[in-house]
Amino acid sequence: MAACSSKGGCPSDYVALSAALLSMILLLLKATLPYMIHKIPRSKGSSFWLVAIQVIASLNLLFSIVMALNFLKFRKRHWWRSCYLWAVWIEGPLGFGLLLSCRITQIFQLYYIFVKRRLPPLRSYIFLLLILLPWIALAAVIQIKKPLNDRCHMGTLWIILVMGLHALYVVALIAFAGAVHHVEFRFHELKDLWRGILVSSASIGIWVAAYVMNEVREDISSLEIASRFLLLVMTSVLVLAFFSFSISQPLVSVMSLRKKNQKEYKTMSQALGIPDSGILLQRESTSILDPNEPLEKLLLNRRFRQSFMEFADSCLAGESVHFYDEVQHFDKIPIQDSVRRIYMARHIIEKYIAAGAPMEVNISHRIRQEILNTNDLSHTDLFKNALGELMQLMKLNLARDYWSSMYFMKLQEDIRMRAVDPEMEHASGWNFSPRLSSVHCSDDPFQNEHTELR
């Protein structure tokens, strides 16, 4: 017993390792299944990589505990088994510190978007690096002072200092939670925020108890083995409880645990409960469309807009029409419902306005910056100028070619058939299937990679 308590390889160690391995597998499945099952396109913006970094940080935390506390029995002492590599750097800045820093970065974004009603002033990766600096500084100080013994244990003073830094970041989470608690989120962001606070607080308590048991009485082998077992098993449970999607990817969160009897959401407008926009009345569905009518008026008819969107997609130039369609949904949200308007505005900006967005529209730099630097994401005229520029482009390019295309002929033919027999609408079948928009990217196979917002 005394030998395995110091060198590792106790039977209880392997039980704890099994629990840690199981938690790693479940964590990876939880992160990837929504993309595999629901075929959600993966973006490369902060909404994706912040979640990916949380997964990596969780794995780092588990690996560092395994290596630092000698769960595995090695015959020789190698340089890569250094206590300062695993117990200081990987467990601190690259483990628990990185995990909490990602969550604080996400809450920082929520605060600016839903409370300040504007995009964050700092890019997410810059903010993440800034709040990670205290962890890096503490790790550097420990590396220089070298207070760890051959079992990776440190004195009481250093334990207080390390756990104080853990507690400081939990306090930061609580402060941000208090700042956004009044926001009526649509995708359980506040619930997941409080779950993160409770989990991280509980983890600090468990770690303090385990470290005290482990380090104060190193002469008691059974106590060291028990505390080591408790530390890894509870960390495995807490890592799974801490991880969630919804703060960054609301539609992914809805899809990830969706049951068969729940409604399927393919677009942000559906997830937000916005009704389909556009006129679709019986008297208009049976009237012949006049090419001499202004394009602005024609696009209000949903049948025409679907046909025009299909034509634009066939020319690989459908971004402007898709943008117009989603702005119509944005305008249908009541002005007093600022939260839903902000959700939709953020989605449109990430998909169409931000530089390098999946379906970036061709608008002037001045108008693009006006939208990105807006002081009110719920403003009624947020996309007005951009829509005006794109309307002119559609008139000069797409509209001229559309009137002589097969798409317009098919539209007119179907209208005539319904005028003769309204029941033919179901028989003829509208095979128009414009690209559906997801929260962060489109289904266009030629899409550009998504880049993060300011």
Automatic annotation (TrEMBL):
This is Regulator of G-protein signaling 1 isoform X1. Keywords: Membrane, Transmembrane, Transmembrane helix. It comes from Solanum pennellii (Tomato). The chain crosses the membrane at residues 15-36, 48-72, 84-104, 125-144, 156-181, 193-213, 225-252. SUPFAM superfamilies: Regulator of G-protein signaling, RGS. Residues 294-412 form the RGS domain. Gene3D superfamilies: Regulator of G-protein Signalling 4, domain 2. PANTHER family: DOUBLE HIT, ISOFORM B (PTHR10845:SF192), REGULATOR OF G PROTEIN SIGNALING (PTHR10845). InterPro entries: RGS, RGS_sf, RGS_subdomain_2.
